[in-house]
Amino acid sequence: MVPLVVEDLWKTFPRGDSPVTALRGVNLRVEHGEFIAIMGASGSGKSTLLHAVAGLTNVDSGRVLIDGQDLSELSDARLTRFRREKLGIVFQSFNLIPSLTAEDNIRLPGTSGAELDKHVDQLLERLGMQARRRHKPGALSGGEQQRIAIARALVCDPAILLADEPTGSLDSVTGQEICELLRQLCDEQQRTIVVVTHEPHVAMWADRVVVLRDGENLAEFDTRHINDPQEVASRYQSLLRVEAS
Ligand code: ADP
Ligand code: MG
């Protein structure tokens, strides 16, 4: 089963007298165990695409298929459940619940039980957060909070891990640690990962970069053998230049 297929996706925000078309026929296909980065300038439609893939926003036309399931065919109640079971989402601002401990933030979307406890233990261990499990988010660094947010996203063993600018609130060293962690989750556990970013040093960790421009697919390039953010930056810039000329 292909974890993610996006077909000819269109989305316009009404916005009074001047509607904004954020997605203009976007296509995307992500294979199992693939790690892709969606790049594009601010306003190019990256977050709108991610929200559409996550079933968090309605689209005007086109389809999103997660593990073969067309999201538009699900009722609201079933979509909510489907999203919880199939998707893990990580945001720039972590979005943890301040009053809950780290481990309870991870547990939140699931149910209680011995199996869940074991899974939470494994995640805390894998993400190096065992010693911090009883801390609340306010007592954790940004990098630690993002690790907990990633653990929370993985607790239901999702088909896809989605992340919108996951390093955007972190310093560069911590940001690289989070990227490295995502890379390891892909390599070790064959996680399927879609990261939205405008930063070459984040995109560098992916297998493939998909470039959006003004809500359209502009181009793609392979990053499996690129370990230099400068090279990603120059490829990305040259694509934008070619298009503009
Ligand atoms: P990116 O994540 O690449 O910066 P977005 O997907 O957030 O881009 O936005 C794409 C376009 O859609 C922008 O022009 C933005 O202003 C517009 N847009 C996004 N969300 C909304 C919204 N809720 N209402 C109106 N316009 C929006
Ligand atoms: Mg965005």
Describe this structure in words.
The chain is 36% helix and 24% strand. It has 245 residues and is an alpha/beta fold. It has a single domain (4-244), classed as P-loop containing nucleotide triphosphate hydrolases (Rossmann fold, 3-Layer(aba) Sandwich). The strands form 2 sheets. Strands 6-7-8-3-9-10 form a 6-stranded mixed β-sheet, with helices on both faces. α5 packs parallel to α6. It is globular, with a radius of gyration of 18 Å. Bound molecules: adenosine-5'-diphosphate and magnesium ion (MG). Magnesium ion is lined by residues 46-47.
CATH architectural label: 3-Layer(aba) Sandwich
Structural class category = alpha/beta
Number of strands: 10
- So, the CATH homologous superfamily? P-loop containing nucleotide triphosphate hydrolases
Gap between N and C termini: 40 Å
- CATH class descriptor: Alpha Beta
Percentage of residues assigned to helices: 25-40%
Q: What share of residues are in beta strands?
A: 15-25%
Average per-residue pLDDT, rounded, comes to 94
Bound molecules: adenosine-5'-diphosphate, magnesium ion
Number of domains: 1
CATH domain fold name: Rossmann fold
Q: Spans of 5+ residues with little confidence (pLDDT < 50)?
A: none
Sheet with most strands: strand arrangement: 6-7-8-3-9-10
Q: Characterize the main sheet.
A: 6 strands, mixed
User: Secondary-structure element sequence?
Assistant: EEEHEEHEHHHEHEHEEH
Q: Which overall shape is indicated by the principal axes computed on the Cα atoms? A: globular
Overall radius of gyration:
18 Å
Number of helices: 8
